[in-house]
Write a structure and sequence with these properties.
The complex is a heterodimer of chains A (131) and B (331). Chain A is α/β, with parallel strands linked by helices and 131 residues long. Chain A is 42% helix and 20% strand. The radius of gyration of chain A is 13 Å and the shape is globular. The relative contact order of chain B is 0.11. The chains are: A alpha/beta (131), B alpha/beta (331).
């Protein structure tokens, strides 16, 4: 019972209080056999990077519906790197305009998922990203 | 420098990685524990257990804040259950511990039970050793939301808090064997809720009926007492403390009771006795696992399947099957 598990941090940076999407994703990843650490609402980038370090996760999922993704995502990637966790991947779920997606991916975000995205795709992408 | 040496030097990332290796029971993890082990034995291990929803995580959050004010470094191991079907888990204890974020004197690690049933995971003891060696003076271990018999925490911790909340059970629940017996301190959390007097009364009458209880653990398959070698030393009677985790009411008083308990353990000799009992039960668990592994290596899978088929057909009882497999091993 001590196999390596994929550990995922699901976090909600910023001030919007709508976390149903984050919970749906957390539950789906659980059902895919992953260990999901859920941080709850209103996390600062510093809190998220700190939690990612303490929990030694493989990947961080950010739920952002506030429109602040172009500020939050690079900041979190930067902090992960500063902590020595440049190998930790980041994906985003929420409301992200299509035109921002290429730029986010260039920063190192492995996937961006909007309303209607299938959890199966998210699971597949995570497994691919942490290989 | 090895990862374990970096842990001893206070490197947090190295600590996080060692914890993962311990959790996954890798060769590196075992080697790291071997390096760290001589540096353990300093921390006060505080177990926090109780039914789901009694407020364990919030209580741990408040206690950690209190210890930080006294400049003690605090590690928290928070255990939540793994799914018995998929092996996945949602670990949500951090949600209640946001106040501790951004403090370098606190390290919170969530872990899933990965199939263990006693309220902790198999690797919890190893993780606690890593925190102890890394110089955390207080290590709090929060169990899964426990039912009546998830009592492994009493073997691991020096001081076990059992958290109750108003409205969860009557005086008959309170005299059943199991979780209430392992309490060194009983906490009635959510003390602003109605029914708190009844809860406290039920716990009090339980203590009056059955006290003092000795801590007795299974040892080589027999029951053994780890309570005072000096039996004459005053036995510890678990105090009851009301708390409200939301605003911190009762937390300084609780911390004081925890300190008094630690003092009692040291004076009575129970501290050393508990350490011995813990290490013995740890070695016993590892021995069982190792013997099982050896057995699996020595008995060919085909032999196992063959015997299982006989059991399916009910021409062999499970005990007879075991006898046959053990004989196969000695060949």
């Amino acid at each position: 019972m001590t196999d390596k598990k994929i550990r995922v941090l699901v976090a909600k940076p910023g001030l919007d209080g709508h976390d149903r999407g984050a919970k749906v994703v957390a539950r789906a990843l659980r059902d895919a056999g992953m260990e999901v650490i859920y941080t709850g609402l209103r996390q600062t980038p510093e809190m998220i990077a700190e939690a990612a370090l303490q929990e030694d996760v493989d990947i961080v999922g950010l739920s952002i519906l506030s429109g602040a993704h172009m500020a939050l995502a690079p900041r979190i990637l930067e902090l992960l790197k500063a902590n020595g966790q440049s190998k930790v991947k980041v994906f985003i779920g929420g409301i992200v305009p299509d035109e921002d997606v290429p730029q986010l991916k260039q920063m190192g975000v492995t996937g961006v998922y909007g309303p209607g995205a299938s959890t199966e795709d998210i699971i597949k992408d995570i497994k691919e990203a942490v290989k | 420098m090895s990862l374990a040496d970096s842990v001893l030097n206070g490197d947090r990332l190295a600590l996080a990685r060692v914890l993962t290796q311990i959790e996954n029971d890798t060769q590196d993890g075992r080697a790291a524990l071997a390096t760290l082990f001589p540096n353990t034995g300093k921390a006060h291990l505080i177990g926090v257990t109780g039914s789901p929803g009694t407020g364990k995580s919030s209580l741990v959050n408040q206690l950690a804040l209190y210890y930080r004010k006294q400049n003690k470094r605090v590690a928290i191991v928070a255990v939540d259950p793994s799914s018995p079907f998929t092996g996945g888990a949602v670990l949500g204890d951090r949600v209640r511990m946001k106040d501790l974020s951004g403090d370098a004197g606190v390290f919170i690690r969530s872990m899933a039970t990965r199939g263990s049933l006693g309220g902790l995971a198999q690797a919890t003891a190893g993780m606690v050793q890593a925190f102890d060696a890394a110089g955390f003076e207080i290590v709090m271990i929060e169990t899964v939301g426990a039912g009546q018999s998830e009592v492994d925490i009493a073997r691991l911790a020096h001081t076990t808090l059992v958290v109750e909340a108003p409205g969860l059970g009557d005086d008959i629940q309170a005299i059943k064997a199991g979780i209430l017996e392992i309490a060194d301190i009983l906490v009635v959390n959510k003390a602003d809720r109605p029914g708190v007097e009844n809860t406290e009364k039920a716990l009090k009458s339980m203590l009056e009926l059955a006290h003092p209880t000795q801590h007795i653990f299974s040892h080589h398959g027999k029951y053994m007492s780890v309570a005072s070698e000096a039996v004459d030393a005053a036995l510890w009677i678990p105090p009851i403390q009301r708390t409200i985790s939301l605003d911190g009411t009762g937390i300084p008083e609780l911390a004081e009771k925890i300190a008094t308990h630690a003092e009692h353990l040291r004076v009575s000799g129970d501290w050393a006795a508990r350490e011995r009992a813990r290490l013995e039960s740890e070695i016993e668990a590892f021995l069982q696992e190792e013997l099982m592994n050896q057995f699996r290596q020595n008995v060919p899978e085909s032999k196992y399947d063959e015997v299982m088929k006989l059991v399916y057909k009910r021409s062999l009882s499970p005990w007879e099957a075991v006898k046959m497999l053990m004989n196969g091993r000695s060949k």
